[in-house]
Structure formats: C-alpha cells, structure tokens
Amino acid sequence: MKENSRPGKPENNSEAKKPTANLILNFIIIFLIAVIAFLSYSVVKKIKSNGNKVVSVESKTVPAAIIQLEVLNGCGVAGAAEKITDYLRNNSVDVVQIKNYVSFEIEKSLVIDRTGNRSNAEKIADLLGIDRKNIVQQLSNDYFLDVSLVVGKDYNQLKSNSK
After folding, report:
1. Overall number of domains in the chain
2. 8-12, 39-43, 130-134, 144-148 — which is least confidently predicted?
3. Out of 12, 31, 59, 69, which residue is the most buried by the measure of CB atoms under 10 Å away?
C-alpha cells in the first residue's frame, strides 16, 4: 500500500521550485517591460527633437590645407594641362588626375567647385590668375576631389606661363 505523505510537504522537488521559478520569470518580464518602455520613450523623444532642429548650411570661407583637383584639357593643345599641373604641384596643390575635357572648344579657363567650399576654387583661380567670374559650382557625391580645372584656349595668359 501507498504511504501517506505528510500534509504541507511537496511530493517532489519540482513542485518546490515552481514558486522560485515563477518569481524569477516575473522579475524578468517586469525588467523587459521597463526596457521596452525606456526605448520607446527615447525613440519618441528623438523623433520630436529632430522635427524642431534647424539645419544651417554655411559655406566654408577658408581653403583646405590640401586641395585635391583634376586638370582637364579643354583647349586641345597637347601639353597645356601638363604644364599647368607642374605649376600647381610646385605650389602645393594635389593634382590627382589629368585628362581631356569633353570638348576642346573652351575659350576661357574654368574652375569648378565640387564640394561646396568655394574658397578652394577661389584659391586655385587666384593662383592661376583666372577671373573669379569663371568659378562655377557643380556639387556631386560621385567626385572624390575638391576642384576641377578646365584649361581653356586662354592657357597662355595664365600665371603658370609667366615663369
């Protein structure tokens, strides 16, 4: 016959562990709810604060220490871009590329600002004696350089030829 178990004593250890396991699970659930509430609050606060932000875009007025530029031959005269490149490199400009422009019919040399820092383009224009009216801005994320120089048919009048 089966022995009678004492009242108040669990029949096996698994029943004794249930209240402890339930207490731990409840604590974990409460902790996770608090974490979710905190994260939700943070996201809502971040979204609201971004809506009130005023972003100002100001162009830089100081040229970069190292200006990277490409020299493009737009006049069609062999060696014109190389001569200007030598002059620029002697004046601490990092010429990263020399190639032909899409046309050889460019009358006046042109400086193209690629990054939005017009002072870089102005420094190149001043260095070569190019009128600042011939500076244009063409911003593009595809370019990994600061300025493009298109050498026009006026290449003989640039400062690179005065030495």
Report:
1. 2
2. 8-12
3. 69
The domain containing residue 97 runs over which residues?
A: 68-161
Number of neighbours of residue 9 by Cβ within 10 angstroms = 8
72 shares a domain with 48:
no
pLDDT category at 110 given cuts 50, 70, 90 is: very high
CA distance 139 to 123: 18
**117 lies in the same domain as 42:** no
Residues 94 and 14 in one domain: no
Read off the pTM. 0.61
For residue 153, give the CATH number of its domain.
3.30.70
Identify which of 144, 83, 150 has the alpha carbon closest to the alpha carbon of residue 112: 150
Does some domain include residue 153?
yes
pLDDT of residue 45: 84
* Same domain membership, residue 102 and residue 49: no
Q: Hey, which bits of the chain come out as E strands? A: 68-73, 94-100, 110-113, 135-137, 147-151
Fill in the amino acid letter for 140.
S
- How far is it, in rounded angstroms, from Cα 122 to Cα 119? 5
How does residue 52 score in pLDDT terms, banded at 50, 70 and 90? low
Instruction: Give the chain's length.
Output: 163
* Amino acid occupying residue 67: I
